[in-house]
């Protein structure tokens, strides 16, 4: 044993890290020409030495099977078989920092510059699935942490933007408390990080991936970024923070399939540029509990065309018969969608609060990449009649400029508050019989002006309480959502209705 636990930034190839904790077993892996070498840092003895880099990695990880540190020096390591982590309490650290996300013409990874100095390359023809596997499905995996790794599916030359290898960069199976994936970048793989569980009907303790953090992750030229694979069960009590996508073909974050739910999870600082260009939603998530999206930026512009079908699709699908979801979407910025900005779907009850959205911009604005900046037709669409949606502040606009489509299928139980550029056109109604009732079935406040002589004006609240108002001269009443005005008359008046937020 050695009496230290090195911080993630240490490069073990060049120096021994300073003491700041311990004791834990520690192994260092480094490149020696075309060979990879694994060394026990306490004993200064060689564990493995081979041109088969995956074999060296596996022996190093199995060497600290009771928990320990594995340091990987800078350089490229070529994998011909998957690396499997099946023990608890293992920490893996690559070399170098992550730094900023920069668009460059880097020779190794065109379009992005990861600043990871440790790069693992999929060296197979058909693609490893996965390159790194955390857990094996036989028991929950606890306390695994991986830092500072770049996973590269293919090396140049590339045959276009969809030239990736099949399989996942990292697959996590039944991870529990303490899993950390930090400063991870995945390029040219079908899936970046995939979460999966096995045989949930037989092993209830394997149904969930829960209590983990994915932070500072980047995905480029992948089909998916972070995906909750079909057939899995819950992702719960998790944090996804500082996630970047560049030319991610399908979803940067997705959960699909029967029993795939996201519960009590936070998504913070999610940015996807030139992504979702298969005509999908970069964020497609099934929520079954409390879920928060904090600061989301989605830009689907590629060249002169908006490629995303929509920005976010949130499905309320609680696992309980009478369950209820609560979702907050705070500060979303969505551009480059050719249909919808945000869609609230699913079938279960839930409350969705969307705060300060900026969906689309001024018509015909240009994006940094040259395409349209905006959202083409629909702003926020509520496709779940059991949901209640509140939109507070912000700006919603579409390229077609049809304000009736800014908030689709909203009802009087929903609310639109202080959205800067949203109004509904005024309406004029000439009643055909007396008494005549009109109910405000919108999420807006309605000013009702009665022009002409009437015999009675009554306002009814949502619970049916009736209050007569003065009907001398011109009458003006204010109706909240679900409130009703009733007028009795001999000669039909004109009702002019104006909406406000």
Could you characterize what this model shows?
With 501 residues, the chain is mainly beta. The chain has one helix and 43 strands. The protein starts with 25 loop residues before the first strand and ends with a strand.
Largest sheet: 19 strands, mixed
Regarding quaternary structure, how should these chains be classified?
Answer: single chain
Structural class: mainly beta
What are the low-pLDDT stretches, counting only 5+ consecutive residues below 50? 1-21, 98-113, 202-206, 365-371
Overall 3D form:
elongated
Q: How far apart lie the N and C ends?
A: 66 Å
Rg value? 28 Å
Helix content: under 10%
Keywords:
elongated; disordered N terminus; 43 strands; mainly beta; eleven-stranded parallel beta sheet; 501 residues; single chain
Give the topology, please.
Layout: E1 26-32, E2 35-40, E3 45-50, H1 53-63, E4 68-72, E5 75-79, E6 83-85, E7 90-93, E8 118-122, E9 132-134, E10 145-152, E11 165-173, E12 179-187, E13 189-196, E14 209-210, E15 212-220, E16 224-228, E17 234-236, E18 239-246, E19 253-255, E20 261-263, E21 265-273, E22 283-287, E23 290-299, E24 301-302, E25 305-306, E26 308-316, E27 324-335, E28 337-346, E29 349-355, E30 358-359, E31 378-382, E32 387-392, E33 395-396, E34 407-408, E35 415-417, E36 427-429, E37 436-439, E38 445-451, E39 456-460, E40 466-469, E41 475-479, E42 484-488, E43 494-500
Parallel strand pairs: 1-4, 4-7, 5-8, 6-9, 7-10, 8-10, 9-11, 10-12, 11-13, 12-15, 13-16, 14-17, 15-18, 16-19, 17-20, 18-21, 19-22, 21-23, 22-26, 23-27, 26-28, 27-29, 27-30, 28-31, 29-32, 30-33, 31-34, 32-35
Antiparallel strand pairs: 1-2, 2-3, 24-25, 36-43, 37-42, 38-41, 38-43, 39-40, 39-42
């Amino acid at each position: 044993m050695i009496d230290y636990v090195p911080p993630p930034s240490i490069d073990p190839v060049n120096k021994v890290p300073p003491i700041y904790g311990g004791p834990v077993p520690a192994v260092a892996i480094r490149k020696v020409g075309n060979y990879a070498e694994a060394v026990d840092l306490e004993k200064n003895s060689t564990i493995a030495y081979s041109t088969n880099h995956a074999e060296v990695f596996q022996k190093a990880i199995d060497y600290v099977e009771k928990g320990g540190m594995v340091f990987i020096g800078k350089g490229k390591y070529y994998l011909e078989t998957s690396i499997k982590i099946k023990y608890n309490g293992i920490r893996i650290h690559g070399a170098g920092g992550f730094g900023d996300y920069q668009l460059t013409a880097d020779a190794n990874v065109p379009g992005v510059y990861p600043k990871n100095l440790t790069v693992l390359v999929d060296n197979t023809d058909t693609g490893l699935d996965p390159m790194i596997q955390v857990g094996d499905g036989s028991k929950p995996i606890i306390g695994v942490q991986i830092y500072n790794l770049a996973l590269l599916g293919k090396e140049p030359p590339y045959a276009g933007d969809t030239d990736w290898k099949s399989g996942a960069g990292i697959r996590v199976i039944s991870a529990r408390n303490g899993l950390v994936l930090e400063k991870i970048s995945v390029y040219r793989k079908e899936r970046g990080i995939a979460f999966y569980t096995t045989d949930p009907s037989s092993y209830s303790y394997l149904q969930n991936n829960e209590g983990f953090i994915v932070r500072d992750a980047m995905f480029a030229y992948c089909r998916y970024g972070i995906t909750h694979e079909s057939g899995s069960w819950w992702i719960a009590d998790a944090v996804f923070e500082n996630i970047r996508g560049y030319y991610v073909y399908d979803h940067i974050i997705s959960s699909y399939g029967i029993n795939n739910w996201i519960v009590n999870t936070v998504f913070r600082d999610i940015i996807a540029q030139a992504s979702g260009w298969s005509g999908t939603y970069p964020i497609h998530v099934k929520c079954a509990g409390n879920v928060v999206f904090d600061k989301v930026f989605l830009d689907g512009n590629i060249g002169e065309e908006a490629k995303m079908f929509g920005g976010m699709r949130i499905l309320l699908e609680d696992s309980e018969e009478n369950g209820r979801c609560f979702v907050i979407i705070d500060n979303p910025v969505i551009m480059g969608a050719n249909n919808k900005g945000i869609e609230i779907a699913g079938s279960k009850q839930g409350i969705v609060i969307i705060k300060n959205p900026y969906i689309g911009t001024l018509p015909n604005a240009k994006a940094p990449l040259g395409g349209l900046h905006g959202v083409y037709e629909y702003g926020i669409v509520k496709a779940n009649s059991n949901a209640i949606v509140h939109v507070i502040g912000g700006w919603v606009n579409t390229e077609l400029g049809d304000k009736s489509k800014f908030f689709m299928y909203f009802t009087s139980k929903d609310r639109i508050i202080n959205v800067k550029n949203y109004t509904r056109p005024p309406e004029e109604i000439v009643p055909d019989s007396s008494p005549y009732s009109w109910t405000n079935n919108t999420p807006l406040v309605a000013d009702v002006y009665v022009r002409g002589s009437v015999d009675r004006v009554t306002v009814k609240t949502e619970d049916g309480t009736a209050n007569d108002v003065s009907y001398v001269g011109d009458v003006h009443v204010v109706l909240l959502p679900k409130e009703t005005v009733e007028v009795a008359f001999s000669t039909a008046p004109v009702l002019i209705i104006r909406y406000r937020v």
